[in-house]
Structure formats: C-alpha cells, structure tokens
Amino acid sequence: MDFRPVGIFDSGLGGLTAVKRLRQLLPEENIIYFADSARVPYGEKTPAELRRIAQQDMDFLKSFNVKAILAACGTISCNTAQTIEDYPVRAFGVKDSAVSAMLQVPCESPLGIIATEASIKSAGYYNAIKKLSPDREIICVPCPDFVPLIEAGRTGEDDEELLRTVEKYLKPVKEAKASAVLLGCTHYGIIAQALRKYLGEDVKLISAADSAAESLRDYLTENDLLGGEGKLSCYTSGSADEFAQRAETFLGEKLSIMPEHIPVMEV
Ligand code: DGL
Fold first, then answer.
1. Residue 73 catalytic?
2. 135: helix, strand or coil
3. What's the pTM?
4. What is the DSSP letter of 222?
5. Is 91 exposed, middle or buried (0-12, 13-18, 19+ CB in 10 A)?
6. Sign of CA dihedral 44, 162, 241, 229
7. Confidence of residue 163 (pLDDT cuts 50, 70, 90)
8. Do 172 and 130 meet the contact criterion of CB atoms below 8 Å apart?
C-alpha cells in the first residue's frame, strides 16, 4: 500500500477527463490536479517553452510527494518526452498509451489523429504509429480552435459554432473514411458527442486521456503502489472560482474540496 497522491496536470480543464477515468478505475487514489489555466493554450507554444513548462508543472506536483505523475496533455507528451522520461519521479505522458490503443485498430482503413497545433507539428503520434505500422494511412489534423471553445464552455452537441468548427477540421478525416480517430488532446473527450454526430456512430473515437489513465492504473497495480482515501485536491494558476464552476462538466462529479489558486509561473 502507498498512500502518497498521484499528480496529474494539464494546461486547463482537459486533463480532468483523465482524472475522471482514473477515479472510475481506482476511486481510492488520492489525486493532486494542477490546471495551468493562466498559460492555456499550450498548443501555441514552442517545444522549448513546453519543456520549461513541463519541468515547472512537474516540480509543483513533486512538492506534494507524489508517487507518480501523469502529464494529461497531448501537447506536453508529444513535445517533451525526454523531460518526462528523465524526471526524478516516475512520470508518464499520454502519447505511448494512445499509440498502443491506435495500433489495436484493424489495418484496412485509415486512422485520423486530431490534436493541437504543437502536437501535430511535433509528429509525435504520427511517427510513433508509423514506426510500428509503416503501411498505415494516417490523416493528421491540427485543431487550434477547439481548446479555446472548450475552455469557454462551448461544448454542447447542438452548439452551432462548435459544430461548424468540427466540420471544418474533421472533413478530410470523414472523406478518407477513417475507421478510428485519436482524440490526441485531452480536452477533446468533452466534445465527443459533437464529433460523433459529425463522423457517425461507426467511427471509433480513441481517447488519449482514457488510455493514459488505464496505463497509469496498470503501473500502480503492478508496482504495488495502490492506496488512498479518494481525495481530489485541485490547484490552478487561473481563477479558482471559474475552475470550480467548470470542473464538474469534465469530471462528472462535484468537487468536494475547493480548488486553490497558485501564482502564475514565468515560462
Ligand atoms: N489538453 C492539452 C492537450 O492534450 C492542452 C491543450 C492546449 O492547452 O492547447 O494537448
């Protein structure tokens, strides 16, 4: 048994989709979540900025004596793999587990990958899939407008602006008849209904957030690190009140501990 918390971070609310999945799988774990909302979106930042951000966010979580860290962010995972791997506390991104899930999809039809500008630019997901499955056809689409819309609460499947944006980005994926689409940004799980409405029920949506939570569960289980009282404590570099109001939509439950604001860090 190990009662130390697990540390999870993202640029904002998106990583809460990974927290939600982890709490379904391991409800007793104590979790420290950090939403770096003052610096959202990460998808517009350079790899050098993202490396500094990853280091700072992990250092913040490490100060809580965490037993493992999850960078619940595709942008950080695709751009800072070495920073995550070298970190003195065992840390994971969402890329490797997402790639493993994509490789389970039967080979006949193309795969779609949607993610932030910085994730697609890094070719992190694309190269990792191609390395193991070189003949796979993959359509990659950066979707820079999704995170600002999602952070602004425009997530309903009937939201016209969201639906127009979904069509704008997903058209090539639909036209290529992709059988599966990777939601390579952890924010995107929250617009799964709108994506499904456009793509149709037959297209499999693979969530980078869910697969990362599942592999974190495996790591904690296999290494005898399970244990806790199910406490979820959240910190944000943005407004604690706004975070508290919005978190429930992402988490599927009310926060029982009020989030705390921490000062903005310099990039
Ligand atoms: N949710 C993050 C990701 O998975 C970050 C998105 C952003 O801040 O641009 O990429």
1. yes
2. coil
3. 0.97
4. H
5. buried
6. negative
7. very high
8. no
